[in-house]
Backbone:
């Protein structure tokens, strides 16, 4: 009897988690722009397979960092960017320069926007409204110091789903 209820509970929890994941996927998504990469002072240009769109309330570039690099969300770093960027092994906090380029050649420079799922997030400065009438064909990144990244993503999310 106990085995049956544990099995039933396990199956119920698995089904519930799958439904929650499907529900969340409708309201947010990530597009992987790159796999492992080292950012340095030279521009790296990322060209997604299909153009990026600003079709949600929030659009961001997320950087999944490789240890020992991490987002300084807990304000462990030092310097003027403390709590607002990527924590380096020497406790300095830096930010890469990130630009998104649209189909017309317009360049949008991003700024640090916090952490999202343990990744450093970069968005347009406030007010962060991406033009919706265009496609974004290139993301380019460079950093004043070398940073190891596991991946870089384009992330979109609808804020009305936070309620």
Residues:
């Amino acid at each position: 009897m106990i085995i049956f209820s544990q099995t039933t509970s396990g199956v119920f929890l698995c089904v519930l988690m799958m439904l929650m994941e499907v529900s969340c996927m409708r309201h947010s998504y990530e597009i992987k722009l790159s796999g492992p990469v080292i950012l340095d002072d030279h521009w790296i240009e990322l060209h997604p397979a299909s153009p990026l769109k600003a079709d949600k309330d929030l659009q961001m570039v997320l950087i999944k960092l490789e240890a020992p690099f991490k987002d300084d969300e807990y304000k462990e770093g030092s310097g003027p960017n403390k709590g607002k960027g990527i924590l380096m092994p020497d406790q300095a906090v830096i930010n890469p320069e990130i630009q998104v380029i649209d189909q017309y050649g317009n360049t949008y420079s991003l700024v640090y926007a916090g952490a999202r799922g343990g990744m450093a997030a970069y968005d347009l400065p406030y007010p962060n409204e991406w033009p919706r009438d265009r496609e974004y064909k290139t993301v380019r990144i460079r950093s004043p110091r070398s940073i190891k990244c596991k991946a870089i993503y384009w992330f979109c999310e609808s804020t009305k789903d936070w309620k």
